[in-house]
Design brief:
By secondary structure, the chain is of the alpha+beta class. The protein has a domain of 74 residues. It is 26% helix and 17% strand. The chain has a 3-stranded antiparallel sheet with strand order 2-3-4, with no helix packed on it. A two-stranded parallel ribbon has the order 1-5. A hairpin with a 2-residue loop joins strand 2 and strand 3. The termini are far apart. The relative contact order is 0.14. The model has no long low-confidence stretch (mean pLDDT 77). Keywords: Motor protein. Belongs to the TRAFAC class myosin-kinesin ATPase superfamily. Kinesin family. One of its GO terms (molecular function) is ATP binding. This is Kinesin-like protein NACK2. Pfam families: Kinesin.
Length: 109
């Protein structure tokens, strides 16, 4: 006779609902932030150009540097341009995600 772990009877196992309450759906929101990185020293030495313009805090525009890239305008919740400091990106973009993750809410960056 072999020993086995205790088993919980099926009638005592509680299952959680598989649906999300309607109220929670209205409160959850996915925010998308983008940062245009500055050129590296190597890129600057090669006279490379930045491929994106950010005319405002929510828009990115492709500069269409070659024929294979389609010119396009894209809208996000927040756009940080290449002159933006790491502190500003953290304060306005990543800080809330970090604190949410600490409090058990999923977040990606």
């Amino acid at each position: 006779m072999s020993a086995s772990a205790p088993v919980t009877p099926a009638k005592k196992i509680r299952s959680s609902p598989t649906t999300t309450p309607r109220k929670q759906l209205q409160e959850d929101k996915i925010l998308v932030t983008v940062r245009v990185r500055p050129l590296t020293p190597r890129e600057l030495a090669s006279y490379d150009l930045i491929a994106w313009d950010s005319p405002d805090d929510n828009t990115l525009v492709s500069r269409n540097l070659n024929r294979h890239n389609a010119l396009g305008t894209y809208t996000f919740d927040k756009v940080f341009d290449q002159s933006c400091s790491n502190k500003k990106v953290y304060e306005q973009g990543a800080k809330d995600v970090a604190f949410s993750a600490i409090n058990g809410i999923n977040g990606t960056h």
